[in-house]
Design brief:
The complex is a heterodimer.
Chain A: H1 6-22, H2 29-53, E1 62-70, E2 75-81, H3 85-102, H4 110-129, H5 133-142, H6 144-154, H7 162-195, H8 202-206, H9 212-229, H10 238-245, H11 248-273, H12 275-301, H13 306-326, H14 330-361, H15 372-375, H16 377-390, H17 399-410, H18 414-439, H19 458-473, H20 476-500
Antiparallel strand pairs in A: 1-2
Helix pairs in contact in A: 1-2, 1-4, 2-3, 2-4, 3-4, 3-11, 3-14, 3-19, 4-5, 4-6, 4-11, 6-7, 7-9, 7-10, 9-11, 9-12, 10-11, 10-13, 11-12, 11-13, 11-14, 11-20, 12-13, 12-18, 13-14, 13-17, 13-18, 14-16, 14-17, 14-19, 14-20, 16-18, 16-19
Chain B: H1 7-25, H2 33-51, E1 57-59, E2 64-66, H3 68-96, H4 99-118, H5 122-140, H6 147-178, H7 183-192, H8 198-213, H9 222-229, H10 232-257, H11 259-262, H12 266-284, H13 290-311, H14 314-345, H15 356-359, H16 361-375, H17 381-391, H18 398-423, H19 437-455, H20 458-473
Helix pairs in contact in B: 1-2, 1-4, 2-3, 2-4, 3-4, 3-10, 3-14, 3-19, 3-20, 4-5, 4-10, 5-6, 5-10, 6-8, 6-9, 7-10, 9-10, 9-13, 10-13, 10-14, 12-13, 12-18, 13-14, 13-17, 13-18, 14-16, 14-17, 14-19, 14-20, 16-18, 16-19, 17-19
The chains are: A mainly alpha, B mainly alpha.
């Protein structure tokens, strides 16, 4: 496959699909969905292929494509994947594909829906494969507007209006990105002053020795930008409202992958380029992470709307990720990346299942539900599977990552890790309670007419469920890959810190 | 004396006069063709200016400077004029009339801007400024049976006259102190020694006079009223061409002429830019009329461009050139939609844009692209433009970059409200809004340019870089 631009094809297959949709008559609902599914399937198949043939022994960036783009800024169209970005790319490919099927019943203006959705998928993919900071930013902000439009048109108004939810989500992300942008521009200009040559590639910037004081404030800005995307406490409040307002596919992509751009950016960009800043802020990150994990777990406990429960739970899980990143060692960061993948799959399954429940029963209010296992066993299986993964049951995908995070962070932040571990108990409490009150209990007559998911609706359960189980039983599939990417990154960071005398 | 340096201006003057004469000869019903004639003429002049790109020099001992910097600005004016003419044909035929006068005076306004961009001394500068302003006064008040248009015309006459007077007073003070009107000679004199405090007064008056033209806060009050009342295509031209020409003068005067004195003034400009960005964006939020919203947004845009003026470095000049160019497409695109919607619904209220995405998908998409580009959302051109602008101040004034970028994101709030109405709401009147072919062409050009420059800003960056360098060579 030498010379075949596999990453570009993965990236632009959804765009091609979206362009094709423009020319399809809006009434052809089946055809529209088929085109969208095909486009994302092409990306998924190629990503799986890339994942399989990536040479972990060699490591580093592979499938590299490099075209000079903007000379005076030193921007290159620079694509490549390594052990950190490949799992993330696989995540969005899987979720993008399954989300199409989770939205199979969208019959209001489906053409616009899928055009926006495919744009969103491309934007997310782009952030994971671009190794140039400028190109990264291009893709990073592309995602915001489609999400907003999708929330306000196809979203649902329950506790807060969808306009409120959409605008809140958008403003949070944009203000975060404004700070991120300031940091990126500052880093670029500072590097230009030091080296005298414009270069926007992430690895090029990582080689520049920035002054320590400069690293501290730019890292803080990046932390705010990426942190608000990752729903870092206390900048998380957009997340439950946003997910509740958003249509199913958007919740899936948003909770599943989009948030992870925050974590990915912290590791790949902030940590790699500004290791001194990272070392300075790591304790803060750990505290905020654990505070968020605990706070959001209690928050979830108080919720009665299924989407809010999962929304808070996802804020809580991101706390673990932050704790893993803050450990600044290979084990902790391995765990953080793996947990992002695991949580992505699990959250996507959760939201798609809730989507089906809501679509059929027209409620997400836990007290109004009950006994659904009897009418909809397949929905029940999906729900239980996602729930058990959420509380970190061994044998499912999220156990090993969480375990690894605690292992990696314990040496550095003993007490905080204990708090984080204790949070799992609360997670178990609210997850099991939600599962029990929704699925079990006496049969409810009013839901007797409901049909179980079938046909295309089964795809999310089948695909995501398989990944949950396989990833849990054979964690090495995921961990070897991630390890091959994290080890050199952490080595480079520690090396820089030693030279700088920070460690 | 190399007269061929003035080819572009001469051609423009001939075109303008030709249009006025043709208006007298051609029978009434055939005057609709004048629009196309204007477009072709301007396009030819644009091609000519691209062809003579490297032809540089100065005339009359530095009174008139032709460098890549001024040529690039002329290309901005021409592009804006072409797009405005294309987009306004139907509007002029149905809402205004007086085709010959409209197009002819539009061309003369363009000529005035060109003279401003090339001005090497105060007299030429003022000549260009007045040519442009008087042409705009006529254009603003051209719908003379419409109360709002006349009101806007009167307001523009009074305030433009006032600001011209202030500017002129400032120029005369500087002349009195230095004994010359030539900008480069002033720079030389000022670099030699200290000048009395009266010079500061002169500079303050210049800032006030020019601040009015670029609608910087606190000299922006006229903008919303005039923008609202003027015929919409003229509003677009006022927002792009007039503003760009004034920035050409600002750069020439302050960074070339008063460079020594100016170095101590950057903080003041930075504050001016910050205040303009904040006020423009915040006041835009409660607007319900699309033209007023765009007017305040254009005030905010002036603030962004001022950021490039702060450092007065080659990078800053380049950023101003880059942004002024891409801003043309976004603004003219947006106002073309407004003009066309008004021509069919008779309303400029945002709530009447409900369901525009269903009534005219192209218009809604154009509006979306234009607004997001102004907000600086990638992959549209505004993002690259803001990147260049804020990169110039990140070292000296990081707080200005923070304010600017946060305010850009605030602007997304009110831009998205328009998007919301266009895309989410069901139309009150579902009849489609038709687009005539020149209007559709304008929109397609503006959209493609916004998108292509956003994805691939390299070539434009190179050209603006050359232009910015030439600015510092001749100095």
């Amino acid at each position: 496959m030498n010379g075949f631009p596999i990453l570009s094809v993965i990236l632009f297959a959804p765009v091609a699909g979206a362009l094709l949709l423009v020319f399809i008559p809006p009434a052809e609902h089946k055809l529209i969905k088929a085109v969208a599914a095909t486009a994302t399937f092409v990306s998924l198949a190629l990503t799986v292929y890339a994942y399989a043939v990536y040479d972990q022994a060699v490591g580093g960036l592979q499938f590299v494509e490099r075209v000079p783009w903007i000379k005076d800024l030193g921007v290159t169209y620079f694509l490549g994947v390594d052990g950190i970005s490949l799992p993330m790319l696989l995540l969005i490919a899987i979720i993008g594909f399954t989300a199409i099927f989770a939205s199979w019943n969208v019959n209001m203006r489906p053409r616009e829906f899928f055009i926006l959705f495919l744009t969103l998928v491309t934007g997310v993919m782009g952030t994971f494969v671009s190794m140039d900071l400028f190109i990264f930013l291009l893709f990073y902000e592309v995602v915001v507007i489609p999400i907003y439009i999708m929330v306000v048109i196809w979203g649902s108004t329950k506790r807060v209006t969808k306009e409120y939810a959409g605008m809140k989500l958008t403003i949070y992300l944009l203000v975060g990105s404004a700070f991120l942008l300031v940091a990126v521009i500052a880093v670029f200009i500072q590097a230009l002053l030091i080296t005298g040559k414009p270069d926007f590639s992430i690895y090029g910037l990582a080689r520049v020795a920035f002054p320590l004081g400069f690293q501290r404030w730019t890292f803080a800005f990046m932390l705010f930008g990426f942190g608000s995307l990752l729903s870092m406490w206390p900048f998380h409040s957009w997340s439950p409202d946003g997910y509740a307002g958003a249509p199913t596919a958007v919740s899936m992509v948003h909770a599943g992958v989009l948030k992870k751009i925050g974590g990915y950016g912290l590791i790949r960009i902030a940590l790699l380029i500004l290791p001194g800043g990272a070392a300075y802020w790591a304790p803060t990150i750990a505290v905020l992470g654990v505070a968020g994990a605990a706070y959001a777990a209690f928050g979830a406990l108080a919720q009665k709307d299924l989407k809010y429960i999962v929304g808070y739970s996802s804020v809580s899980h991101m706390g673990y990720v932050l704790l893993g990143i803050a450990s600044l060692n290979v084990i902790g960061i391995n765990g953080a990346v793996a947990n992002m993948f695991a949580h992505g799959i699990m959250a996507a399954l959760f939201f798609s299942t809730i989507g089906f429940v809501y679509e059929k029963t027209h409620t997400r209010w836990v007290p109004d539900l009950g006994g659904l296992f009897q009418q909809m066993p397949r929905v029940g299986v999906a729900f239980v599977l996602a729930g058990l993964a959420s509380l970190g049951l061994p044998g499912l995908i999220s156990f090993v990552p969480e375990f690894t995070i605690f292992l990696g962070s314990f040496g550095r932040y003993g007490g905080l890790s204990v708090v984080a571990i204790a949070t799992i108990i609360i997670t178990a409490l609210f997850v099991l309670r939600a599962v029990a009150n929704t699925l079990y209990g006496p049969r409810r007559e009013e839901y007797d007419h409901l049909t179980d998911i079938r046909g295309p609706e089964m795809v999310p359960l089948a695909v995501l469920g398989t990944v949950l189980v396989v990833g849990g039983l054979v964690p090495s599939l995921l961990f070897n890959m991630i390890n091959s990417g994290v080890t050199p990154l952490v080595a480079s960071v520690t090396h820089t810190l030693r030279i700088g005398g920070v460690l | 004396m190399d007269w061929s340096l003035m080819d572009i201006e001469i051609a423009t003057a001939v075109l303008g006069l030709g249009l006025l004469v043709l208006g007298l000869i051609v029978p009434h019903n055939a005057r609709r063709g004048l629009g196309w004639l204007t477009v072709l003429g301007l396009a030819g002049i644009l091609a000519l200016s691209i062809g003579t790109w490297s032809h540089q020099g100065s005339l009359y001992g530095g009174m008139y400077i032709v460098d890549s910097y001024s040529t690039f600005f002329k290309e901005i004016f021409l592009t804006a004029a072409i797009l405005v003419t294309l987009g306004s044909m139907r509007y002029v035929d149905e809402q205004v009339g007086y085709q010959a006068e409209y197009y002819g005076i539009l061309v003369f306004a363009t000529l005035g801007m060109m003279v401003m961009a090339s001005a090497g001394d105060f007299i030429t500068l003022y000549l260009g400024l007045e040519l442009m302003t008087i042409a705009f006064i006529i254009l603003v008040a051209l719908r003379k049976t419409d109360g709002k248009s006349v009101e806007a015309g009167i307001k523009y006459v009074l305030l433009a006259g006032l600001s011209s007077a202030v500017l002129l007073f400032g120029l005369s003070l500087v002349y009195g102190l230095t004994g010359t009107v030539n900008i480069i000679r002033i720079a030389l004199l000022l670099s030699r020694g200290a000048f009395p405090p009266v010079l500061i007064l002169g500079l303050v008056l210049l800032v006030a006079g020019l601040g009015f033209k670029i609608s910087a806060v606190p000299f922006h009050m006229w903008a919303p009223d005039v923008y609202e009342g003027a015929p919409t295509p003229i509003t677009a031209f006022l927002g792009t061409g007039s503003k760009a020409a004034s920035f050409a003068v600002v750069l020439r005067l302050f960074t070339a002429g008063f460079s020594g004195v100016w170095a101590n003034w950057t903080l003041m400009v930075a504050i001016l830019a910050a205040v303009t960005m904040v006020v423009g964006n915040l006041v835009a939020i409660p607007q319900t009329n699309i033209k007023r919203l765009l007017a305040y947004s254009s005030v905010a845009q002036a603030g962004y461009i001022l950021v490039g003026v702060v450092t007065a470095s080659p990078a800053g000049v380049k950023a101003v050139l880059f942004y002024a160019f891409i801003y043309v497409f976004a603004t003219v695109g947006a106002f073309t939609v407004v003009a066309n919607v008004f021509a069919q619904t008779g309303s400029d209220e945002i709530r009447d844009y409900a369901g525009l995405s269903q009534r005219s998908p192209l218009s809604a998409a154009m509006m979306l692209f234009a607004l997001l580009s102004m907000a600086g959302i990638p992959p549209l051109a505004g993002f690259a433009g803001k990147f260049y602008l804020f990169a110039t101040v990140i070292q000296g004034y990081p707080w200005l970059a923070v304010i600017g970028l946060v305010m850009s994101m605030v602007s997304v709030y009110y831009y998205l409200r328009v998007v919301l109405v266009m895309y989410r709401d069901e139309p009150l009147d579902p009849s489609p809004i038709t687009l005539s072919s020149p209007v559709a062409l304008t929109m397609v050009i503006a959209m493609v340019a916004t998108l292509v420059i956003g994805f691939y800003p390299g070539p434009l960056a190179n050209v603006t870089d050359l232009a910015a360098r030439s600015f510092f060579v001749l100095r």
